[in-house]
Design goal:
It contains nine helices and seven strands. It is of the alpha/beta class. The chain has a single domain, classed as Alpha-Beta Barrel (TIM Barrel).
Length: 231
């Protein structure tokens, strides 16, 4: 079994700022101590920064970028992505009064071919960590000195199991792979008007996170991006 001091798990909630009902669920999870970090979307309207900051949770930027349709982004598309990142970073700082601790992307747009390196350079310049979605993306980030977890788990579809096997093992106190694991979750209260394909799943994620609060081994292994990825 890994020592608790390794703190290998970051529970990171996506999509704050997407819909008010989703925000209420995220705030509920953060206030209860069920998540360690929250990714904020700044392009969907007014973001209640004060309510999120009051929970004490770590806060990052959940980027929204236009993903190129081809296999390789053009220079114009890369320039547009860089401008979009700068605009969203500025919006985040106006709302929260400080830069984000970490970056990730809606539907993993931050890891899209041709855009991943643009995001990586921005993160390196701003001393931010970045969610890596696969080994290739992880290598790219680390090559430019951007800290990133060693493994990403979590579902993108309601048809997948809500509780990843790696997290279940941690909650049971079983031995797990070394390194930092990031568990991507989407807690919230369902809002059918959102037209999100992951609407009902948000309520499931919220219930699961609150149930896991009593899992002692899991709680002892949790950390923020800043603490788990400090160099």
């Amino acid at each position: 079994m890994q020592e608790a001091t390794t703190r290998p798990l970051i529970i990171s909630a996506d999509d704050y700022g997407y819909r008010p009902a989703y925000d209420r669920g995220i705030l509920e999870a953060a206030s209860a101590g069920a998540v360690d970090a929250v990714g904020v979307m700044v392009r969907r309207g007014q973001v209640d920064a004060a309510a999120l900051l009051a929970t004490g949770v770590e806060v990052g930027l959940h980027l929204e970028l236009v993903v190129p349709g081809g296999t390789r982004a053009t220079e114009a598309q890369r320039s547009a992505a860089a401008a979009a990142i700068a605009e969203q970073l500025a919006s985040f700082e106006r709302a929260f009064g400080r830069p984000p601790t970490f970056l990730d992307g809606h539907h993993h747009c931050h890891a899209a071919p041709g855009l991943a390196s643009v995001v990586a350079r921005e993160a390196a310049g701003g001393a931010m960590t970045v969610r890596s979605v696969d080994p290739r993306h992880r290598r790219l980030l680390r090559c430019v000195g951007v800290p990133t977890p060693d493994l990403l788990v979590g579902r993108l579809s309601e048809s997948e199991e809500a509780l990843p096997g790696e997290v279940e093992a941690l909650a049971s106190g079983d031995e797990t792979p070394g390194g930092v694991i990031e568990w991507m979750v989407h807690p919230g209260h369902p809002d059918p008007a959102s037209a999100s394909a992951y609407d009902a799943g948000r309520g499931e994620d919220l219930r699961l996170l609150l149930e896991l609060l009593d899992a002692g081994p899991l709680r002892r292994l949790r950390a923020t991006h800043a603490a788990a990825l400090a160099t």
